[in-house]
Batch of 4 targets.
Target 1
Amino acid sequence: MSKILVVDDDPDFVEVMRTVLSVDGHQVVSASSSADGMRQVVREQPDLVILDVIMSTVLDGLTMSQRMGDDPDLRHVPIIMVTSIANTDYAALFPMSDYIHIDAFLSKPVNPRELRDKVNQLLTAVLTPA
């Protein structure tokens, strides 16, 4: 069983993620901001992080992904960024570059099958010895 950290300030979204991911036997822990997410990623040592962009600040999730990417102990943890930023006035603020430390990007509302497929693909790549 893999542990997945869902970082999102919408408790309903977190609960949907918990329901969808538990189908495949994943344990889901959660946080509601990048600051709380960083504490949880150190404490819980998840196998994967699902991360929203807009939380306590417009680009809160990007802050967390960059902090994880800069940390040698955390940069191996895959990140799926899940957001509705494309449908907001903040879309122009979102940097679309190779420098963003994420492994996949999904738009809200998330298709459960697509999410499960992406999670399982990334976990297989990380957990399978080279």
Target 2
Amino acid sequence: MKPIDPTGPAAQSPAELPTDVLVVEDDTLIAMDAAETITSFGVASVRIARNVADALQMIAAHAPDFALLDVGLIREKSFAVAEQLERQKIPFAFVTGYSGPAGVPATFAHHPVLRKPYLRDALLETLRRWRDPV
């Protein structure tokens, strides 16, 4: 099952989307598919981190406009990345295969959550709303 529908709509205007997106995802195929899809919307830069340490280094080196965080990474959760993004007031959304409220702690409940497998339309809508207050 492919998580993103390649036949979905393209962004109407790249100006409404973030310029630089950080994807924190441990599954290489999902990360590459997400990056390719996000780029197809007109986003100029998509960077991929496979774990918390790499994500934190990337944020420190060059803060993204927006981030997509897979909740469950190999042997760790992405919540330390979420905390750093909040400290820097960088908007983000979670991506998870977990169902129900157990996947994301209540402290992050105000952030968008994309459920895996997600469609291209849902990803595009999340990116379009990246500046919405949380």
Target 3
Amino acid sequence: MPAKRPPSLPGRTTQHVFLKDALPIAIRLHQEGQLEPARKMYERILEAAPGDANAVHFLGVLHHQMGHSDQAAAYIKRSIELDPTVPGWYNNLGNVLLESRRLAEAADAYEKAAAMSPRDATLLNNLGALRRAQERHADAEAAYRQAMALDPKLPEAHNNLGNLYRSMGRTQDALAHYCEALILNPKQHQARKMLGIAYYTLRRFDEAAKVYREWLAEEPDNPVPKHYLAGCTGEAVPARAADAYVEITFDAFAESFDANLENLTYRAPQYVASAVERLCGEAAGTLHVLDAGCGTGLCGPLITGYAKRLVGVDLSAKMLAKARPRQVYDELVKAELTTYLQSVNQGFDLVISADTLCYFGELESALQAAHGALRSGGWLVFTLERLDTDAPDQRSRLNPHGRYSHSRAYVENVLTQAGFDHVAADAVHLRNEGGVPVQGWLMSARRP
């Protein structure tokens, strides 16, 4: 008798892959960042073997990476039902649920993982992040300290404890842990960034600049320390944040963006939506709307009722991946904002932008492009951070945190020169940072 062949995947091409070989192939594709081919391979495995817990779990992780949080949680929960013995799977479920702000469910997942693996420092570090999100600061501190006791060389725990202390106003304590994180991992960019921020929060600007100079000396082509150094020193300030800086910053921030902004009592999307309601009246679904710098799409659900067509544009691919599951945008475009605006001559009735133009120092090109992108009678609504100054020549300032603030007179003048009328500026409280209110402008203007 001929030898029995092992089972193979259902053939969709002339090439067959044996089932036992398929999962390692899918995992390799996944690790290489080939998410769509990996997804298809996982799904083909599950067609042949629906009870393969590993394939179910890794498909859930992949959906999370693609920004599909609900699908991710469902697949990971299913994998745990199939095999409830893997602590890391509960940890992954907790990560997904935490980023979705499903805090009670995340707590249950992390606690189960920690009970199964009580000496896993990484699990305790994640549990600390959850407790911080729950505003249980003492419990978060205890979890981070347990993690550090189990693994004194875990830089992430020191960095996270530093972030916790900074949010509590304990900046000196935060500095100590940022320094420890850097000692443990000198290349850890987030710790270096936060160390610089801690120094400038203490108004120790020379020491903040020293952190960024040393970082830049090691990585002269890195736009992040270059940008922060300019903010600390006021030297070589760019007209706007470099594209590379914006992409790196927001790609890194995408996974936790919404949760972090919620913790900062972020209000810009609500201000923008209120202005749109005031200017455009009842939502009738008749407007072509551009969300300029849409990020994860926080404005989208608030203004979709006005839109016959809603387009989002952003430089960060990972931010756009988070916006896509909201299913309110007709099109999402990865592009630099001014360049995109210049390409759509009179294409929109409404352009909104929440906390995006604060990465521009000079506003002339962007606002002229916005004017050109609007149809007659179209409205532009956006937010900026506020620069209070009586000096007529001080138009904007790059701050040590990396964003620009602008004077009202400068913004109003640029809008008028660009051809807008009905220019208005309202003083607003955009968010809290380090316990301090960040003041801003809610701007609106019309193309005649």
Target 4
Amino acid sequence: MRRIMSLTVVTGLMFGLVACGSEPSGPTGSQPAATPPAPAVAPVPAGLSVEEKAELQAALPAPYNTADLADGQKQWNKCRACHTLVPGGANMVGPNLYGVFGKVAGTHEGYTYSEPMKAYAKTWDFATLDAYLTKPSAEVPGTKMGFIGIKDEQQRHNLIAWLKIETTPKP
């Protein structure tokens, strides 16, 4: 009896899920719903090949030119809950980081920065990102970035090299 009840519940759920996925059509004259408009975000440029990434990385200053990009991408998981990386991407808890290298800290359009970050006003490059990502609250006391930092130097270098390659606008 219990098995029959379980099968009945599962079957009902399956039919319910199938029904949720589509609009009725056919003899009633209903038409499928229109496709929702695409989000207003700039398209992501075509990804770089492994060879192109290697070429870009080789041109980075030491020690970033020998960083582990796969680990850098893994380190990005610590950042992605608060930041986006796509061109024209949304600001979240933190600002969008696409094109961060060469920008002055505290100036990303549309993001509300803390006064200490606006006052920091350094240009983001390898050295400033390395210092900041070691322990943000020590580099910019009063920053609203609650991230504890990345103490492991190699992991920071991996992340920074990966960010440079992923966030630099493609020609």
